[in-house]
TrEMBL record, chain A:
Family: Belongs to the UPF0718 family.
Topology versus the membrane: Multi-pass membrane protein
Localization annotation: Cell membrane
Transmembrane segments: 36-54, 74-97, 103-125, 132-152, 197-215, 227-244, 256-278, 290-311
One of the Pfam families matching this protein, by short name: ArsP_1
Organism annotation: Thermolongibacillus altinsuensis
InterPro entries linked: DUF318 (IPR005524), UPF0718_permease (IPR053166)
Keyword hit for Hydrolase: no
Protein name: Permease
Keywords for the protein's UniProt record, in alphabetical order: Cell membrane, Membrane, Transmembrane, Transmembrane helix
UniProtKB/TrEMBL annotation, chain B:
Domain Thioredoxin-like fold: 1-75
Stretch forming the signal peptide: none
Record keyword Calcium present: no
Active site: C10 (nucleophile), C13 (nucleophile)
Chain segments annotated as coiled-coil in the UniProt record: none
Domain of life: Bacteria
Name recorded for this polypeptide: Small redox-active disulfide protein 2
UniProtKB keywords: Disulfide bond, Redox-active center
Disulfide-linked positions: C10-C13
Length: 315, 76
């Protein structure tokens, strides 16, 4: 449907051939924009609806008192569906620690939550297909579990700011929403998300379209293909400052992949964008000491790089 | 009536405070609106997702940016 729309626009409205440079670039732009925006609206709506059933207060309740192994897997899975804007990082962290949830499990949740989110899912699905999207989710969950386990083993409790342990947590029953409220909440979220990111998306797709039409084939194979071992670590480092621009970055990656970037490199780039961000580290600094932040970043970065290599081997 | 907006200062928290003031103005009621930004104080309400809204010391919403209409319904 979206392809037909793009075909029609390029050939019948602009009278260009889709195989020409300009025609190809315009086609890429129209096709990606319409497809991704439509998918985003639908997916954010569905996921927000599910999310309204798992607020962090409930996650905390479900995780506390569970056996470590079970809690760890549960934390990673709940991270996938749980709502959590980065400005809630601090209260969330404190709430978990206060509830007696082990530090490693808290980190598992903090890692899985941003990596596997609906926006990156839509982008991955529409750009790389369901196989890579599923693999991304799977590896995101595994990364969260392993990284959390490592942080737990390192016994980092003393690197949590001491005031965290002194806070008294109140108990407040949060009122249940009605189905209608949930639907309104989901609709608002879908509209807000699209409003927030459409510009980044258009810019990203615009640059992607330009690369698509004008960068020579195989140009990148030499620099960022499978054979270059440095491609994955470089992608991870480049991903960190792009925090809020996951949406804009992916269409560029798509175009770059067509020009020869290996899929694992592209995926670790995506993971680095979502999992490691400066604003998040600044927030975490309020509750944990620099050493633990350093370890958190190192463990996650090593994990993402490993995943990049694994993907490049199996895909 | 005392209304508290709990939030660490993110964009949504500020928007919620504006919506609260707007709702009060529209309803023409007398209420004391406070912004609570200190983490220990926020946590005392058991809230883990911000922004949250507290009316007369009772948490009525957490993790949501309520619209003016929704707030009016809560205040009525």
């Amino acid at each position: 449907m979206f392809k037909k729309l793009a075909d029609w626009f390029v050939e019948d409205v602009l009278h260009l051939s889709v195989t020409s440079k300009l025609g190809g670039a315009v086609h890429f732009f129209i096709y990606d924009t319409t497809k991704i925006l439509a998918l985003l609206l639908v997916m954010v709506f569905i996921i927000s609806f599910i999310r309204s059933y798992v607020p962090p207060e409930k996650v905390k309740m479900w995780l506390s008192g569970k056996k470590k192994g079970i809690a760890s897997v549960l934390a990673a899975l709940l991270g996938v569906v749980s709502p959590f804007c980065s400005c809630s990082t601090v209260p969330l962290f404190i709430g978990f620690v206060e509830a007696g949830i082990p530090l490693g499990i808290t980190f598992t949740f903090l890692i899985s939550s941003p990596i596997v989110n609906e926006i990156s899912l839509v982008m991955l699905f529409s750009i790389f297909g369901w196989k890579i999207a599923v693999l991304y989710v799977l590896f995101g969950i595994i990364l969260a579990i392993i990284a959390g386990w490592v942080i737990g083993k390192l016994r980092m409790e003393k690197y949590v700011e001491s005031y965290v342990y002194e806070i008294k947590l109140g108990e407040t029953p949060i009122e249940e929403m009605t189905i209608k409220q949930r639907l309104v909440y989901a609709k608002n979220n879908a509209v807000d998300t699209v409003k927030k990111i459409w510009l980044f998306l258009l810019i990203g797709i615009g640059i992607g379209a330009w690369i698509h039409g004008y960068v020579p084939e195989d140009f990148l194979v030499r620099y960022a293909g499978k054979d270059n071992l440095f491609a994955v670590p470089i992608a991870v480092v480049l991903g960190v400052p792009l925090y809020s621009n996951a949406v804009g970055s992916l269409p560029m990656i798509e175009a770059l992949m067509l020009k020869g970037i290996a899929p694992g490199t592209a995926l670790s780039f995506m993971m680095a964008i979502t999992a490691l961000s400066f604003p998040e580290m600044v927030l975490l600094r309020k509750v944990i000491k620099p050493k633990l932040i350093g370890i958190f970043v190192a463990v996650v970065a090593i994990g993402i790089i490993a995943i990049g290599y694994i993907f490049n081997i199996i895909l | 009536m005392t209304i508290k907006v709990l939030g660490t200062g993110c964009k949504k928290c500020k928007e919620l405070e504006q919506n609260v003031r707007e709702a009060i103005a529209q309803l023409g009621i007398n209420a004391d609106v406070q912004k609570v930004e200190e983490i220990p104080q926020i946590m005392r309400y058991g809230v883990m997702s911000t922004p949250a809204l507290v009316i007369d010391e009772k948490v009525v919403s957490a993790g949501k940016l309520l619209s003016v209409e929704e707030i009016k319904a809560l205040l009525a």
